[in-house]
Structures are given as structure tokens and as C-alpha cells.
């Protein structure tokens, strides 16, 4: 069980890093507000080096996720994957300076409680 939890945690750390890189890459990119902007948006996104870093992190997360799946039932591993909600909340606060309001914090704590109940079963 501990090995599975470690695999899932490492996979979700990689995935969270990928999400942070994606957000940083898209932060200054123009919004798709007009019909003609769609092509320009994708061209500008694909030119961002952080997109490549995000994809690499997500690929590493996938490899570790597959290792977790090979060691435990999907019905256990998948709910543990909800750790990413907690990690993204913390990482967005640390790396993106996003605010965490009370409702978001309570919702994340409820997710954490669900993860603990799943892990203990």
C-alpha cells in the first residue's frame, strides 16, 4: 500500500508541475476572444518553451502512474489520484501567487478526507 501511495504521489507531483508550466505558458497569451484569434492563440501557445516542459512533466507522470496501476487495483489508485487537487491548490499558491479563499480550502480538505477514507479501506 505504501509503495502504491508513493507512486501515485510522485505521478501527481509530475502532473502538477505540468499544470503549473501550462498555466505559466498561457498566462500572457492572448485570449481566444474573437473568431480569428483561435489560430494565433495556438501558434503563440506552441511556441512557448514551458508547454514542452509541461508536456515532459505530464509524460513522466504518466510513466509513474502506469507503475502505480501495475501494483494496485484501479479502484484504489484512481481515487488516490485526487491528491492532484491538493497539490495544485498548494502549487498555485506558491508558484502563481493565487489566492485561496475559505470555500476552496474547505472543498480541498473534503477531498483530502475522501482520499484518506479510500486509502484506509
Structural description of this entry:
This protein is mainly alpha-helical and 121 residues long. The protein has one domain. Helix content is 82%, strand content 0%. It has six helices and no strands. It has helices at 2-27, 37-46, 49-71, 74-80, 83-96, 102-120. α1 runs antiparallel to α3, α1 (2-27) packs across α5 (83-96) and α5 (83-96) packs antiparallel against α6. The longest helix is centred in the N-terminal third of the chain and has 26 residues, at 2-27. The model has no long low-confidence stretch (mean pLDDT 86).
Summarize the structure.
The chain has 6 helices and no strands. The protein is mostly helical and 121 residues long. Helix 1 runs antiparallel to helix 3, helix 1 crosses helix 5 and helix 5 runs antiparallel to helix 6.
Net shape: globular
| SSE order, one letter for each helix or strand | HHHHHH
Helix content: over 70%
Reported for the largest beta sheet, the result is: none
Defining traits:
globular; 6 helices; 121 residues; mainly alpha
Topology:
Elements: H1 2-27, H2 37-46, H3 49-71, H4 74-80, H5 83-96, H6 102-120
Helix pairs in contact: 1-3, 1-5, 5-6
